[in-house]
Amino acid sequence: MLGRRAGHGCQSDHSLIVLPFKEEILMRRILCALLLGIALTSNVGCLLPIYSGEPSHRAQQLIFTSEDLRTILMEWERFWFLDQPSHMSPQRVHGGVI
Question: In which band, very low, low, confident or very high, does the pLDDT at 33 lie, cut at 50, 70 and 90?
Answer without folding.
Answer: very high
